[in-house]
Write a structure and sequence with these properties.
Rossmann fold, two-stranded antiparallel sheet, binds tyrosine
Length: about 325
């Protein structure tokens, strides 16, 4: 696949496309994504993991930031607890295919005086209002934001400079922080990063994905759990807000290259799709039954996640 196509497939926005093209012409290019350590690495995280893998294939050096201090600032728990899951997360990301990446633990690079000076410098340029709004979709309990959650976006900007990356990948929920970075990093002598935004996919029930709501599939799930969760997933006969189609689009097709629907001959026989548009069209036209779509999704996902599960839990 052409590098530009690889870099932009399955994204909702690239800021800017011209800058990305220029980057692809450079001999060395670096991209990163930061993740707050999380008890479960799930299909939501995997959308950006897949994008990083696309970019790796398009010649980017990939950095994964395990943002332990950010999780702390965002009220996700004690530093001790967060550190513990950070190590687990790293193994998950490696198992998912990011084995050739550079891994950086936030607290290992964010407590130097240069870093702190950059944070202070930028905090003097960003209004409280902008900082707060940038956290709308990222911050926890934002009806009552803490000062730590205003420091958070400033530090995310400084990460980009400190890690010396040319591009930042994130869900579209990171957009406002990224726009602040593009606006303000040049004032501390750092070029504006190219920002690549992926969609936020829905949970299996069609509602906002959240580990606590149990509507996600994670790297830790067994085959039986994957089967069970997909079986009861929301899968309307439409293409709008259909979490099963989203899994096929954002996970199965990029990783397996095709979707195979297995059916007895009397129900139309097997069908194979290697482009999402074709699958979507066939499904919208009623040529594929939701039950068959689910069965195919479960077996593809099991095939994708089994080796990851083994890698993560094999010792
Ligand atoms: N803001 C990201 C999230 O919502 C985490 C993150 C933290 C990303 C620091 C980048 C960064 O530099 O999970």
């Amino acid at each position: 696949m052409d590098p530009y196509e690889l870099a932009t497939r399955n994204t909702v926005e690239v800021v800017t496309e011209e800058e990305l093209r220029a980057l692809l012409d450079r001999p060395v290019r670096r991209v990163y994504t930061g993740y707050e350590p999380s008890g479960e690495i799930h299909l939501g995280h995997m959308v950006t993991v897949n994008k990083l893998m696309d970019l790796q294939q398009a010649g980017f050096e990939v950095t994964v930031l395990i943002a332990d201090l950010h999780a702390f600032l965002n009220r996700k728990g004690t530093m001790e607890k967060i550190r513990e899951i950070a190590e687990y997360n790293r193994r998950c990301f490696e198992g998912l295919g990011l084995s050739g990446a550079r891994y950086v633990l936030g607290s290992e690079v964010q407590l130097t005086s240069d870093y702190e000076l950059a944070v202070l410098e930028l905090s003097q340029r960003v209004t409280l209002n902008r900082a707060k709004r940038s956290m709308d979709e990222v911050g926890r309990q934002m009806e009552n934001p803490m000062v730590s959650q205003m420091v958070y976006p400033i530090m995310q900007m400084v990460d980009i400079a400190t890690l010396a990356v040319d591009a930042a990948v994130g869900g579209i929920d990171q957009r406002k922080i990224h726009m602040l970075a593009r606006e303000h990093l040049p004032s501390i002598g750092y070029p504006a990063p190219v920002c690549i935004h992926t969609p936020i996919i829905n949970g299996l029930d069609g509602k906002k994905m959240s580990s606590s709501a149990g509507n996600v599939i994670s790297v830790a799930d067994s085959e039986e759990e994957i089967q069970r969760k997909i079986k009861k997933a929301f899968c309307p006969p439409e293409i709008e807000n259909n979490p099963v189609l989203e899994i096929l689009r954002y996970h199965v097709l990029p990783r397996s290259g095709k979707v195979t629907i297995r059916r007895p001959a009397k129900f139309g026989g097997d069908r194979e799709f290697d482009a999402y548009e074709d699958l979507e069209r066939a499904y919208a036209a009623g040529e594929i039954h939701p039950m068959d779509l689910k069965t195919a999704t479960a077996s593809h996902l099991i095939e994708i996640l089994a080796p990851v599960h083994d890698y993560v839990f094999s010792r």
